[in-house]
Predict the structure.
Amino acid sequence: MSAEAAASAPATASGGAPLLALENVTTYYGQMRILEGISLEVKAGELVCLLGGNASGKSTTLKTILGIVRPRSGRVLLDGEEVNDLSVPHRIARGLAIVPENRRLFGQLTVRENLELGATLRKGEDLTEDYERVYQLFPRVHERLKQLAGTLSGGEQQMVAIGRALMSRPRLLLMDEPSMGLSPALVQQNFQIIKQVHETGVAMLMVEQNANMALSIADRGYVLATGELVLADTAANLLASDDLKRAYLGR
C-alpha cells in the first residue's frame, strides 16, 4: 500500500464500529509538530500494531489517545464519540488501559498492591473475578503476590504490568514498547504473553520497534515515519512488503 493510500484510507477489519479511531490527528509539542494527519482505528477483538523507529511519533500517538497530549487538529473517538476534551481518568473509565514503556511498576510495593492500583477507578466493586483472571493468565504472578515488585525479573514484571492493566477491565489495552529492555529470550516470552491475553478477547494497540515480532501476532499494522503514516495493511501483507523493508526494517 502506498503512503498516500495509507494516509487517506486506513485499513480496517470487516464489520462493526471501531472501539478507537483517530481522524486526521495533528499534534504539537509547543511549536514542534510531532504527528501530522494521523488516521487509524482499532475494532473490537483486534490486535493492531503501530510500528516505527525512534522519534517517529509512536509514543506521542498513545499519549494523544489517552489525553495526556491534546491534538492541535483532528479527532480522537471512542465508540464513535469524540473525546478530545475528556481527561485521562474519564478516558480510562470508558475502557482504556495502558501497559507503559519499561513497565513502571511501584518497586517498593508488593505484587498484590500493584495489581490493586489497576482497579483504582473501581473502588467498592468485587474484584475477586478480576484477580482470578490475572492468576489464571499468569500463575507466576499468583506465586509472587507478597514479593516486592522491584525484585522480580523483567519477564515477571511485564506479567504484573499487564495484570495491573487488566484489573480495570479494559476493552482496549494500549501497550508501549513491550519488548524494550528485555533479553531476546524474554522478548519471545513476552509476545507469547501478549498473544495469550489478546486471545481472551481484549482488543490491543501495541506500539513496538520490533516489527517482525509484533506483526507475527497482530491482525493489522500501521507504520509511522517522522510523525506521518506511511504504510497500513494486514500484518501478513506488511511482513511480505518490500515497502516495509525499505521504510522500516532496512533503515
Remarks:
- Residues 1-14 have pLDDT under 50 and may be disordered.
